[in-house]
Every structure is written in C-alpha cells, then in structure tokens.
Amino acid sequence: MKLYSYFRSSAAFRVRIALGLKGLPFDYAAVHLAHGEQLRPDYRATHADGLVPVLDDGGELLTQSLAIMEYLDETHPAPALLPASPLAKAKVRALALAIACEIHPLNNLRVLRFLKDDMGLADSAKDQWYHHWTRQGLDSFEEQLLRLDTWQREHGRSAPAIFCFGDTPTLADCCLVPLIFNARRFGVSLDGLPRTMAAFDACMALPAFQAARPEACPDAPQ
What we know:
The protein has 9 helices and 4 strands. The chain is of the alpha+beta class.
C-alpha cells in the first residue's frame, strides 16, 4: 500500500494511526499542502478534490479518511476499530464524525487560507476563528464522552473506559488525537476536558500513535 500524506494533515494522520494499529506497512508519498502540490494536475488525477489522504491499495485509489479507515477495518479486521454491536458501532461512528465533519472542516488549511488571503482577515482574527470552533467542538466532544460513559455503565460496563469507547482504540480515537495535536499547535486551551484528555493520553502511550505523529513523518522539517 502507498499513502499520499502530508505530515500536518489531520485526515492523513488518522489513517497513519489506523495503519499502525493494524500493523500494516505502507509507502509514504509526501504531498506538501503548504506548497500547493495537491493542486498539480498529476495529483488531481489521483484525487479529484486535491486533498490528502489517498490510499493506493494495489492500484485501487481510496479517498476520505473515514472511508479509508473503515475499508482497512473490513479488510484487516484485527484489531477492530469499531465495536461489534450495531448500536455501539453507531455511537463510535458518531464520535468520529463529530470531529471529522463538525470541527475539522471549519479549521483545515484551505479554510484558514481563504479567511486570510481572500477575506483579508488578520492573523489574530483567523486564530480567533480557529480557537472558537475548535474549543466549542471539544466542549461538545467532552460531553458526548461523558454521556457515552453513562450509557456503557447502564449496559453492564463496570470499569471506566480507557479510550473514547472501551479498552481499545477505535475510529474515534484515530480522529481525536490529530485534533488535539492541532489544538496544541494553535494554542487552544485544553483545560476542563478531563475525559477527552484521558483518552488522548491513553492513545499516546501506544506505539502506533507515537509512530504516526507529524514530527515522525519523513516530510516533517528536521
């Protein structure tokens, strides 16, 4: 497999984590988003939207991080990134989508560039935008985790969950970790998020999450 990635891309970070958790080797193909390499015609032939990640699995090109991770989960079932029961699976998907569809799209590179270059916002205003939507999303995510903990207790779980859901990382954790990395990079306050940060810390104790970090990528500045 080959992964088209950029070291600072949250979406590509998610897939790197999933590949690591599955123990799947891959070739790393760097696409420098800040330099506009994603807009080159040869890359647009790979991904019509000019985004990362793209996973090339034997010539089949897969896009969108959540679709890629679910594909990996179906083709390489162990360890599972989604629980077995349909109800629990839907709840984990909801957590992942809360990040991938509600928080991240407001704060990705092309949006921030549009705010600054096309709308003329000062860096301080752009950063205010980023801080507002990220923190609002994290507050909501914290509440969702707490409610899900209650739901798990009501359904027979005795010990507190270690990760976003249960005792092993799921799709939700693959989405959470890149969000926290970016929040720290932009100086977003992470105070008052004990459940969220406990899940993050549990993830970062695992080699797959450490190996997927932006600074560990071959295209990261040395």
